[in-house]
Amino acid sequence: VSPLKVQMPALSPTMEEGNIVKWLKKEGEPVVAGDALCEIETDKAVVTMESNDDGVLAKILRQQKQLTR
Q: In what residue span(s) does the Lipoyl-binding domain sit (predicted)?
């Protein structure tokens, strides 16, 4: 099975940056489509990012910090 890179989604038409506030899954945990992966803070709100696919969260490459989309 080849890995799938999870990208931070644009949560609004004007969103250019977001911060990962907290990871809700840990490395090695199984993930089902619809599971909450992390909380993302934008300039307007904190939103939960959900998985689009089933699998295992193999590696967290970005910890809680500012990310630019």
A: 3-69
The token pair that represents 26 in the structure block? 């840990």
Share of the chain above pLDDT 70, in %: 90
Q: Which of 50, 4, 53, 49 is nearest to 32 (CA)?
A: 53
Mean pLDDT of the chain: 84
Q: List the end-to-end C-alpha distance of the chain, in Å, as a whole number.
A: 27
Answer yes or no: is pLDDT of 1 > 70.
Answer: no
Rounded-to-integer distance, Cα 30 and Cα 50, Å: 13
Instruction: Residue count of the chain, please give it.
Output: 69
